[in-house]
Amino acid sequence: MRKKIGLSFTATNYANYLNWFDENDLGNSFELVTLSFEANNIEDMLQCDGFILTGGVDVHPSNYDGDEMYPNMPNTFQPDRDNFESKIYRHAKQLKLPILGICRGQQLVNILEGGRLTQDLGDTKNQVHRKLETDKKHSIEIDSSSLLYMISGVRSGEVNSAHHQCIDPLYLPESLKPVAFADDQTIEAIEYSDPSGKGFMLCVQWHPERMDNKEFNPLSINIKKAFLDAINNSVKMKMNIINPANGKIIRAVQQDDQSSLESKFKTLKDGQTAWSKVPLPKRIETLQVYSKLLAVNIETLAKTLTDEVGKPLQQSRNEINGSISRIEWLTNNAEKYLAEEIMNAAAGMTELIRYEPLGIVCNISAWNYPYLVGTNVFVPALLAGNAVFYKPSEFATLTGLQIEKLLKEAGVPDNVFQIAIGGAATGEELLSLPLDGYFFTGSYKTGKYIYEKVAPKMVPCQCELGGKDPLYVTDDVEDIVAVAAGTADGAFYNNGQSCCAVERIYVHEKVYEAYVDAFVKEVQSWKIGNPLEDGVYLGAISRESQLEFLEHQVADAIAKGATLQTGGKRIEGNGYFFEPTVLTNVNHSMSVMREESFGPIIGIMKVSNDEEALQLMNDTSYGLTASVYSTSRERAEKILSATDAGTGYWNCCDRVSAALPWSGRKHSGFGATLSHAGIRAFTQPKAFHLRG
Question: What is the pTM of this model?
Fold first, then answer.
């Protein structure tokens, strides 16, 4: 796979940067990627192996406390570009990826490291440096101890010049050193003062990409070669994003390592306090803007989600719309549940509670509903004044990047929300950082590991884990066909890859045969295939490894006496598809009735009465949800009250409300998201006893 070079877009002579690299440079080894502030395609940054920050319009003075007005200032600035390219530089520095800054790029790097600019060189120096019809030319001297000298092999040379600003030598940050000067002492190149533990970085004030003799001048061709060599020598592990519907690689993205995660943590540490002081109404407004951006971009977001996890396109739209609804409830109720509470005021003593943020919280999220389970955590966390270190699942990375992009477009500061990219190793590194709370959604096995690993830190750790959710159909249901259709949807929606999907069904013997018949007919009516096609109800299984597990559950059940009513095997061809599978004559010796399936498979078991149904419903190590279908609310509530589960459903299933706590029991986890409990989960209450 070719390595990718990210070029920041400029409207000024951009073609010169593209043309600097000819076929001999690129061949089968490199590919150029345009990173454009106009398109705001910041997500493409993660696929790049090195970056060039190009020339162009002046950086806005607000970035370095410069004067708003100065000679030769441009007619218009590009603050969006400043922000966009700042993200590129920080990303490259965090991952130690090669950086080459040219003209404006050098000035931006200097600013981001804490330096300032001489805003205009003045009449005399502008005669030497500022471009009129063509670039100016002048000589430079190079520090013989520098990387630039090592690269170019020359102590002096002639360069082109097209600028009216330069680095202010009085405010050069300690992290940078000047390594080339014009005769008038204008700084012409900078490097890291201490390059140890950092990636390749060189910035030059001239334009090597458009020199007259760029094919021969060592201050062009040698710089280009050194930059390409640095990319080749930068050993970074990329993670392939696979489309489960066809098995093809969507793209490869850079993973975080210990160093980059520590750098991102420091970024959050620097920003959290300021964010907590932003008035709550402003934080609410920011998250509401994010919600609006979800709605505006829903088609693009849904397409990415479907490509990445395999769910049908309409189900992806449904998920995003569900997230919008949850954000509406959370933002509408944040002031109510985060406000100071006066508990007692009498005899000169006021007793009150204030809800303070935890600090920096870690959100290790899931792939099956990345918008919904993410919203449950990072939205209330941000509302409460926390900074968030967000790790999307490696199976929903591109969606995670789009979430980050829209949050920051909405106004969440860069140093308040950072994303960690990678798989289990990245998650492991997050557990070692001194974070102030951990919120995990995923399997019991992983949740248990996280809980045990972070326990010595004595910080909050909430785990929303899996389930083996039971459903009971009583003998008094009136429309058995409608009940069968609704409960089949509860079992198979999103390919059964839902924490609260119906995972086992118990049916009263009086309606058992009719229910099974209607259920199987419903399942057999569904369209399976390309999740982008209209009318498809079952798309691809998100993880290829799950196919083998589902096959094992089918084989185990049949070996122990179950009857296969329909389905039972993977669908041959490209992608990860499994037939919707219904098993009857099942019992609790079978894996399908005891272990979380997380796929399009269900066991249906006959029972003789409510007592037997209840005993079987509670015969599990999980406790997320339980459902009862009956015409009698009293009968259903009696059963549901006796189940050991966090949520009970009467005549419905597989649903979540933002107004109600989402919590599990036993191996389904602990703690709560959503509702007032889920908002306050991201705070630490402080008691005040105020006399006077």
Answer: 0.92
